[in-house]
Amino acid sequence: MRERTNAGGPWRARSRILAAGAVTGLLTMAGISGCVFLPDVTGTPDVSPEGQISFACALASHVSEERGDVAEWGSFIGEDANPGVSELAAAASLVGAVAGYTLPDHPELSESGTLVIQGIVRVDEAAIADGLDQMISACDGADTGGQADVSQEGQGAYACALAEYVIAEHGESSTWGTLGEEPAWHLAGSVGALFGGANAYVLPEYESQAESGNNLVSGVGRLDGETIDAELAAVVAECDS
């Protein structure tokens, strides 16, 4: 297990959010189809493309049902931030928003995710709430039903499994396609966001992955493949330790 430094304060976190938000401007958004995938109920995280959408939809529903009115969330950045911020950022990232990727069969989900990320970057409560509502609407028909484990422990377990998936299925970042066309970019960002990296939140019980979470989100924003490769490997090592 490698030594960890402090994940950074609010201003450092804000710079990372802005870096991630900058790439969302690359999105081209269209489409009207709905989310129709069922969540995994076996206890093993489903990190397939279908499972990623199901988890994102379940996480968005969790935020809507459990985190209350966005206007009452309070702090958005740092360890004291409302958990709904990082959870919603992770849901948005899983549908491509953190790296300018549009889901081929579900572009409306990517569009709603972009609204969420832009709202978080601006700390715009109304935009975040609108993006969440649109994401819930786009997910209509997906029977999440609370079956996916979107508890904080479940989020960490999903991030661990997703990191392994990215390495196994997509290899080193030097082999990835371009931003907006290659899903590995937003999946790497999603690993970071699930650990709180989009807003310097620290996911309980996964404190040792906090720095990697921050670095993955900022690495995607900078297209820094060396950092992404190193931090994905670090996440897997920490999760296995």
UniProtKB/TrEMBL annotation:
PROSITE patterns: PROKAR_LIPOPROTEIN. This is Lipoprotein.
